[in-house]
Amino acid sequence: MKGFCILTVIAFKSIFLVLTFLFVGQIAIAQNSNDSLNDWDKIIIKDSHFAWSHFENDFQINRHDLWLTPLEKPDSIIKKVDSKQVSELVRLIGRRGVNDSISFEKPLISFGRDSLWLVSNAENLWKEYSKKKERLKEMDSIAINTIKDYKKANQAASSLEGAPSTDDYPFIMVLVIQKSDTLSVFSSGQNPYMLPWRTMKRNVYDSKISELVAALLPDHIPSNKERVSGRNFNNSFVKALYDSFLEDKENYLDARHKFPRTFKSLQKEFEITKAEIVDMASIEWEGKECLEMYLKDVKGSKNIQFNTISGVNELFSSKKSILRKKDYLINSLKENPVYKYTLSCDNCLGEIHWVKSKSLSAKAKNNFKEDLVENGIDKNKYDKLYKDAIFYELTEKRDSKSSFSRWIFLKNGTFILWQLQGNYLMNFPNDFFEKQGYICKEIKF
């Protein structure tokens, strides 16, 4: 870990020095026409990576011989580069850097793909992505049709830019030098093609630049060549599509295939909005495989759902008890102010937990007691009051912000705000709560 931290510091220091060199004015950006931009003297490529494996490369290409060499060892020839590729790269950098830019409104186009490519390759894209896992035939059909959806495909592709994580630090800078002027672009993108390329004024989304840079980099020296060339783009693209649009559907189909009787019983009374077989579900069934389902009463409010968790044995599942108890649960909440607020709120979702035959499971109760102690409250304060308690969650969305709260409603009318995350809660003043997190606070209405 210490070595990793040192590398991280080195990465930021190196990139900072390069960017400082650019932005304080020591490098002037040429304002010439495209023709004069092609009249370059030298190209320098700075190529580095800082993580568990790391390298720092500085290459140069001189116009008079078109040899790619180490910057500090100009006599050590690595390879001859293609003059047409160099000219095209200089043209793209100059045109995009000085006069205009490519936006990211149609990400697939920025990655050199279009709707025809999507439709023609959808089946093979899914087949290659899914080859290591046995999947239901129904899922294959859904996935292929989803990949062909141009709008969804662009939405997925839009996530393949920038540097979303913090454990990987690739960096490439291209400097085109003409006498005393220098034109430059750089990238620290972590995805295939390393988009966007950045100039002093804008981001440039053009995979052609990436491909040309990759063509100039050497083949047998550790470098960012593979990443900037776009290798693994197809797999990354389908994964982004899967994560956004397909994972929940596949989990649902797998659960329905394994538990057909449970689905058949529940669908008489509920809309099953989500179902998944998981090893750990929330805080109620930790460490064991279980079936987690989200249910909406077909006759009830769209703002209320039931979150049921049960063992994978259908004979001992929660389906019978939730079918029997749902009306009782709703009736017991009719005068509850949190429940009533949920029903009246346009952007609220209330969730009633249900495990086996109760709302507040033994696991949840034990976690709550631990949080009581953390707040300086006697863990046994509510020991005789948990029977028929309701474990309820409220999610609110307001002005592009969200708030999440966990509640325990005791049968004697006590309202306990177990957890609060967000800057607001219902109609309470913003300064009503001194802190957030697992606060275990009794609320008077």
Topology of helices and strands:
Blueprint: H1 2-26, H2 34-37, E1 42-50, E2 55-62, E3 67-70, E4 79-80, H3 83-99, H4 107-110, H5 115-130, H6 137-148, H7 150-157, E5 169-178, E6 181-187, E7 197-198, E8 203-204, H8 207-216, H9 225-228, H10 233-258, H11 260-266, E9 270-278, E10 290-297, E11 304-311, H12 319-332, H13 337-344, E12 348-355, H14 362-374, E13 390-398, E14 401-409, E15 415-421, E16 441-443
Parallel strand pairs: 11-12
Antiparallel strand pairs: 1-2, 1-5, 2-3, 3-4, 5-6, 7-8, 9-10, 10-11, 12-13, 13-14, 14-15, 15-16
Helix pairs in contact: 3-8, 5-6, 5-10, 6-10, 7-10
Report on this structure.
With 445 residues, this protein is α+β, with helices and mostly antiparallel strands. The chain folds into two domains: 2-104 and 158-223, no CATH class; 259-443, no CATH class. Helices cover 38% and strands 24% of the residues. The chain is built from 14 helices and 16 strands. The protein has helices spanning 2-26, 34-37, 83-99, 107-110, 115-130, 137-148, 150-157, 207-216, 225-228, 233-258, 260-266, 319-332, 337-344, 362-374, and strands at residues 42-50, 55-62, 67-70, 79-80, 169-178, 181-187, 197-198, 203-204, 270-278, 290-297, 304-311, 348-355, 390-398, 401-409, 415-421, 441-443. The chain has an eight-stranded mixed β-sheet with strand order 9-10-11-12-13-14-15-16. α5 (115-130) packs antiparallel against α6. The longest helix has 26 residues, at 233-258. Mean pLDDT is 87; it is low at 1-14, 20-36 and 96-101.
